[in-house]
Amino acid sequence: MGLEQDPIIDLQNVTMSYGGPDGVVALADASLQIQKGEFVAVVGPSGCGKSSLLKLISGLHPPQSGSVKVAGASVTGPLKICGMAFQNSMLLPWRTAIDNVLLPLEIVDTHASHFRQKRDEYRKLASDLLGTVGLSGFEQKYSWQLSGGMQQRASLCRALIHAPELLLLDEPFGALDPFTREDLWDVLQALWLERHPTVILVTHDLREAIFLADTVYVISHRPGRVISKTSIDFRRPRQLEDTYASKFIDLSHSLRQQIGHDKRR
Q: In the predicted model, is pLDDT for residue 232 greater than 80?
């Protein structure tokens, strides 16, 4: 296998606990591999360890056992190649939208050392990125002046501003109404098609997972382990009307049955 085919993320038989060896086991003997540029969704019942998986991959929590590798190297601490977005946009209320987006460039080592010299260049980059998600004219608004959907758009921009190789999304649209959520599916798909970072999306929404992902992993009831991997072969760019096609609905039912069957065990 050539180096270009090696997975950018490789988890082998990983067990992870909170509170030490005698604490709560979040993941047990979990394995998965993700290729560079792949868009992956992770689904499963509440409390199954989906968010814990992101903590492992980003280096925010160590495994109890097993191997976690990103870009061929063992993960031993927080990764610098990650961008992250969460269900709560976590925008700083005392910063404007554009200054929130600029934050990673102020703190990521490769950019922070020359942030002052390149400030104008970076501000244009942030402004252009906000424009791509429909926030032109809102650069100087504070988070409390933006709707929930606008805040999540700004949060996505902040996660992408430093061109991360890896984008980790923990239910970023979970708190939004269905119409805003679907609108942001289109936004995220367009950003991914333009930049092609490796994306891991944790979600409870099976329509969202199938609409956005190349591959959907199902995680078992806690302690979580990978119980299935499903490839999604719908054409891109995907349209919302695709979600009403019989093949799409059948796939959603299949994933739901896997999750439901596992919960009854």
A: yes
